[in-house]
Amino acid sequence: MSDSETPFIGSLGVLRDERFEQAQAMAIEGDREAFGHYLASAKHGNPAAAHMVSQYILRNLAEGGLTGALFWSTYAVLGYRIPAESTLKTILSSPKAPGTGEFIDYCIKEADAGNGAAMFVAGMAYYTGMGTAFDADAAFTYFERSYKAGNLDGKCQYALCLIRGAGTKQDKEKGLGLLKETAAEGNIRAALKYAQLLEHGTFVRKDCGKALAVYERLASLRVPRAMYEAGRCYLDGIGTERDPDMGYSWFTLSQAFGSVWGDFGMSRCMMGGIVENCREEGANLMLESADKGCTDAMIMASQLFAKGGKILKKDPARSLEYLRMAASAGNASAELSLAKMYEDGTGLKRDGSQSLAYAMRAAAHGSTEGCFMAGTRLISGKGDSAKGFGLLSMASDEGFMKATFSLANCYSRGIGTAKNPGKCLELHKELADRGFAKSMSVIGELYYLGD
Length: 451
Description:
Number of helices: 26
Number of strands: 0
Largest sheet: none
Low-confidence stretches: 1-7
CATH topology of the domain at 333-449: Serine Threonine Protein Phosphatase 5, Tetratricopeptide repeat
Shape: globular
Distance between the termini: 48 Å
Mean pLDDT: 92
CATH superfamily of the domain at 333-449: Tetratricopeptide repeat domain
CATH architecture of the domain at 333-449: Alpha Horseshoe
Order of helices and strands: HHHHHHHHHHHHHHHHHHHHHHHHHH
CATH class of the domain at 333-449: Mainly Alpha
């Protein structure tokens, strides 16, 4: 870890919000004016304050109704405020709980009234396709508005859209700068997203050790999701030596805070034999975690039902069900898998439009291969060739050689861009130097023909 990064990691998750602190002090004294300070803090991007706002509404100490309480609990959960999960579940189980359409309408109305938190939640609805159609352009617009309204979660998602080129022109340098800045301001979402980029080497140089340092820093600040991520790193040997006991310890702590992700981590220990004689119980806990919203559990459930084994019998229908659940939650890996299934006709009826739709979603959520799949289809006459060229360019920038090869062909034939034989040859030479056989063949043919 470089010295320049150490202060950044040291400042993660330390949100100093005078409004929230003042609200806490006033609440202890029984001052009802505390609600106004909680509300202001929540709109800025404090999930703890959002949780308190929902509690005030549910106790009829403030206006907002069940829809308002649902909104603020949802926002608190999106900000990784664990106690809000039980509140959210209670609200959703009520027979008077608002429907999805009513909830989205509420978010948009609040957003139009200047609520930065509502702008963020509306953006997330469009970004994941939860409760409305997936629309990266609409999502980016709401995130940008949220950022300009001073909401830190909106700023985080705005930065991620710039990094991924989702709903806007890609600007990795600006996006990464804003993401790190938002994390240093104390935003949990930004810190976790930055650590995930580091771990997977997506849009940044891969550094699993630094990713683990971020997870552990956040875990020390009592962020249960970070406890799970740290435990996963120790269990799988990511950024450190494999240490199942340390992984188990982090999962136990995450679980103690009520995190469904901690439950899933524990289920892995049980199924993996780290906790003995509990494999079947571990499988049940994994399925419970998936049903409660843990996307990692959904992916594992899908994989296990696809293969079949002693604990879970092969069940293609349930495998597909959990894969769709993960995709609906915005998991890029699941979206990419569905794109391939629709493209190949593996387990699903072939459907080019559905394949493209899922590939576009995966690309917007950070999948380099998703960029390649969507870009390839678009330049083949199935849509906007210029947009396809842009997606291939993003995949190529991340070192995806097949995307660079496709770009060379675009320059050769003038697809999605102006013809540029010189650039075409330059890209093929670059690929040949990296050992890409097809480009070696193209270059050899060009020299043979004298072109």
